[in-house]
Fold:
Amino acid sequence: MLRRLFGRPSAPAAQPEDLAPSLEPTRRGLGSRLAEILGAADISEQTWEDLEMALIQADVGAATAVDLIQELRSRARHAGCRRARELPPILREVMVRALAVEGEAGFEGLDPEGGRPFVILMVGVNGSGKTTTIAKLAARFQGQGLTPYLVPGDTFRAAAIEQLERWGERLGLAVAAARPGADPGSVVFDALGSRAAREADLVFVDSAGRLHTQHNLMAELIKVRGIIARQIPGAPHLTLLVLDAHTGQNGLAQAKAFTQAVQVDGLVLAKLDASAKGGVAFAVTRSLGLPILFVGTGEAVGDLAAFDAAAYVDGILSGASG
Ligand code: GDP
Structure:
């Protein structure tokens, strides 16, 4: 799936080492706790309870932790395991499966020769990392010789427009004009009808993450999405929901509201480097039923890794299984 993520033209596939440094805090917490539990002792009821607790403490979420351990238990029983140290390979498999959501979300439709830009709509609450992720993705494609165009769809915050303009300047990318307080729908309409959009290979549309009420925000997003679809048939080709890796249960409820309002295709888990709770990847995958496509691994423009379930789990478990 990784190679398919960026589709044509080929994007660099994720290297497991991209993820490992960001998972270091999680590995020190969850990974070493699991290593302790999965020591040499016989498997007992306590083993399952301890494993479940360790997962919950790493933000895996109670329901997901129960599911994972149930699955592990039943597989271990089938395999006739008696010692806890026989469990790591099975746990690894169970965790990888939990993260591997089936889906075709990616950049397959990106066709630089096709005459129409590939449009990516970014959604998520303020501060989650949307704008930074747009810059990171745009820089990657720019590095492949493609032309991204940036559209500041969050006109409710002057700072959001300025931030995207600054990224545009730094990267040498065109940014659509937007005035603070302007109707985001008309900004997007004008931007997509512009010559810059026609000449672009990809258009990244930023969106508001907070309005006066949640309902307004969702209504606005639906409207913006509709305008994108009318301007460019088939667009947005990809809608990505950006989540902060610190997202707790409350953040998940907010995230669900986005997935209900607009058809979200995939997730970006930002700020993984700043969190010791890498278990949240399991909680968001399960609760939203969407694949994680990218992981933010720092504030710099190159700090983005394509998500790979096996590399992610290995990054967490390397202390526990090796
Ligand atoms: P937005 O409001 O959703 O557009 O969020 P921003 O892109 O403005 O990001 C909010 C803050 O998080 C900024 O200070 C970013 O530099 C920071 N940030 C974004 N992504 C990452 C990441 O992957 N790691 C770290 N450490 N910080 C990030």
In short: Residues 16-37 form the longest helix (22 residues). The mean pLDDT is 89. Strands lie at 118-123, 148-151, 174-175, 202-205, 238-244, 266-270, 292-296, 304-306.
